[in-house]
Amino acid sequence: MNTYGIQELAKPYIEYDMIRNHTDLPDFPELRTKLLFAFLGRNGTEAGKQEVYALATSLVQMALETHDLVPVTNVAKGKAESRSRQLKVLAGDYFSARFYQLLAQAGQIEMVGLLSQAVCDVNRMKMNFYTLVKQLKMTADEYIQQSANIRSQLFLSFTRSMEGVSQRLWPGILQGFAKCELLAEEIFRIESLQNIRGSWAYWHIMQAGTREEKKLLQAEESDPSRIKAILHKYNISSQLYHMLDAQVRTVWDQIRQLESEPFVEELFKIGEPITRYLKTQKVLLEEL
Fold it and tell me: Could you provide one GO biological process annotation from this protein's UniProt record (predicted)?
């Protein structure tokens, strides 16, 4: 089994027609899962445990992120939206149940406890995050850091399974990859003008924008052309690109500190989608 097989193993658990046809699911946490699988293998975890740990953790992550997509209000506009909401709840619960089952069948009861504690930690972190959001006290930098921490917490449960330089570098490399994923998503959000509210661009403009611009961003419905003009005024695309570029360089420097050249190459290969995306964004920015 290599790092590219975990997502295939997860498909029987997450690809149900009923769910896919009637609601949206979050993306599979591919980079973080591959990274965990690679580090576990590097640190001598048995192949069977390595596979189960990575698969179970990815399912818990999917469960948490699926529940995050459930609308805060119970009021649905129609039958389709009501069904979508119900399926998100059920899908998240199902992914959680499969995580327990996988680890229990493998006799990994201790890991059930560790991941369960990590879930509690994630929920606590989310409460702090949402409190800052509700009070409009979130800064753009805090948004990136806290979001990356939340995305990384489950995977950090395995830190004690590692040794030496791997154990020391694992948290930074993991969070670095999480920030890269997040920044790539933020670039897509502003390019497509989808879900601008609550994004990095939103919090940046809430810090630096005029009173009128802030009101426009907070409005339930806004003129897309005006939003686009504000994003252009503050060079949001360019800022996010440079943040992603800097983050990739930081992660690559951390990876190069590892002692095994084959392992370094393996991690660079895992990060190739980020590198390709970064090059694409550079071309697009140069054309503007």
Answer: menaquinone biosynthetic process
